[in-house]
Specification:
Radius of gyration: 20 Å
Number of helices: 15
Helix content: 40-55%
CATH topology of the largest domain: Dehydroquinate synthase-like, alpha domain
Strand order of the largest sheet: 1-8-5-4-2-3
Number of strands: 8
Number of domains: 2
CATH architecture of the largest domain: Up-down Bundle
Order of helices and strands: EEHHEHEHHEEEEHHHHHHHHHH
Bound molecules: 5,6-dihydroxy-NADP, zinc ion
Distance between the termini: 37 Å
Strand content: 5-15%
CATH superfamily of the largest domain: Dehydroquinate synthase-like - alpha domain
Structural class: alpha/beta
Largest sheet: 6 strands, parallel
Mean pLDDT: 96
């Protein structure tokens, strides 16, 4: 097992009705800016729950953060923070809103043009951001219990990530009841995103970190079990709770400790969102199978372990099991009605591999993946395989 440090300071309030407790988590004299997305919280009652929980606090609002949070919108929120002397942020939404708030938390303490935070060679924000909490309405990204975020810039077609140890939410509320209003398409996205987060930290080479590997496999199996229940029309509170907690556990830092991690699927996937606006999770479903086939030699031991332990594939050679693992993964995405080929999402796909190769080269992303050896040319080939 590799050396590691592990600190995760986010307090989780899990379960039905927990939103009512947030006033205890926020200082009484705070000037709060509640940030939300396109309005789902107004129709499903979460907005009213937050307002009543914070009755008596100084509460300002900024709505309209779009999915794949946009820099252009967030700088408007930053102006509100400065104008009203806001000293506490509250994200109420999915990964996009929480990511947007993390960016605001950093930008509020940053001297200079905020976009620089995402384009500096070392994309880690040092120091403490403005304190914030979150109320999660869409299980998927794990943003509610990690310190990373991803921001898009419309005018340059870029989607870039950053983060820093001072950007964890102070608290996050996980009430499984909120998933009742999420469209099935978004629930499928959430499952696929969390599932791929586990794979990014798991589908490398077999390691000696037995506990992390088995926790990772348990999250995958639990997501597989919860998927048909949360995708059905009948609300199942326990299935919703398992789905929600799996998403958080998939990316709160625990399973990446002591092991090597990949994340090249996300790097390539973000490009597809930036060029074509494809949902984040669907870009991962497009890239992951090709990525695993292209890097088969490096990953076949773990692919076979995945097939055996997660899907009970017992027959065949190591290579056959590994290929069976990739097929099971594709079938799982298809079971969520998520397509795994780029040509399904856009007709304009033909020069995508060139664009990704060029973008990675220009950003000096010359060695990605767990061995830091995946070149822009490799990315070209993987993206081309995904057409
Ligand atoms: O904007 P509203 O009206 O709220 O609608 C949202 C949005 O349209 C809707 N929604 C959310 N909760 C709902 C709901 N609709 C009904 N009922 C509810 N309870 O769902 C839509 C999608 O929301 P969004 O926040 O965009 O989804 P998600 O949580 O999947 O976040 C995606 C973003 O997170 C980034 C992605 O790149 C993408 O920008 N990621 C962040 C990560 C992190 N911080 O660690 C890691 C991930 O890999 C990912 O890159
Ligand atoms: Zn993701």
């Amino acid at each position: 097992m590799l050396n590691f440090e592990f600190k995760n300071p986010t307090k989780i309030l899990f379960g039905k009705g927990e939103i009512a407790k947030i006033s205890k988590e926020i200082p009484k004299n705070a000037k709060i800016l509640m940030v939300y997305g396109g309005g789902s919280i107004k129709s499903n009652g979460v907005y009213d729950q937050v307002k009543s929980a914070l009755d008596g606090h100084e509460l300002h609002e900024f709505g309209g953060v779009p999915a794949n949070p946009e820099y252009e919108v967030l700088v408007e929120a930053l102006a509100v923070i400065k104008e009203k002397n806001i000293d506490y942020l509250l994200a109420v939404g999915g990964g996009s809103v929480i990511d947007g708030v993390k960016f605001l938390s950093a930008a509020a303490k940053y001297e200079g043009t905020p976009w620089e935070i995402l384009t500096k060679p070392v994309r880690t924000f040092e120091g403490e951001g403005l304190p914030f909490g979150s109320i999660l309405t869409m299980p998927a990204t794990g943003s509610e219990m990690n310190s990373g975020y991803v921001i898009s810039r419309r005018e340059t077609n870029e989607k870039l990530s950053s983060g820093g140890p001072g950007l964890f939410p102070e608290f996050s509320v996980l009430d499984p009841e909120v998933i009742q209003s999420i469209p099935k398409r978004q629930i499928a996205n959430g499952i696929a995103d969390a599932y791929t987060h586990v794979l990014e930290q798991y589908m490398t080479a077999p390691s000696s970190a037995d506990l992390q590997e088995r926790i990772a496999e348990s999250i995958l199996i639990s997501l597989q079990n919860a998927a048909p229940k949360v995708m059905s029309d009948e609300f199942d509170y326990d299935a919703a709770g398992n789905y929600m907690w799996c998403c958080t556990m998939a990316l709160n830092g625990l399973i990446q400790k002591g092991v090597i991690t990949d994340w090249a699927v996300h790097a390539m996937g973000h490009e597809l969102t930036a060029y074509f606006g494809i949902d984040h999770a669907r870009t991962l479903a497009v890239i992951a199978p090709s990525h695993y086939r292209y890097n088969f030699e490096d990953k076949k031991g773990k692919l076979a372990q995945y097939a055996e332990r997660v899907w009970n594939v017992t027959e065949g050679t190591l290579e056959e099991k590994a290929e069976a693992g990739i097929k099971k993964l594709e079938e799982f995405f298809h079971s969520l009605e998520i397509q795994t080929k780029l040509s399904y999402y856009t007709q304009e796909y033909l020069n995508t591999a060139e664009r990704v190769e060029k973008a990675f080269t220009e950003r000096n992303w010359l060695g990605l993946g767990e061995y830091k050896k995946l070149t822009p040319k490799d990315a070209f080939k993987i993206v081309e395989m995904s057409y």
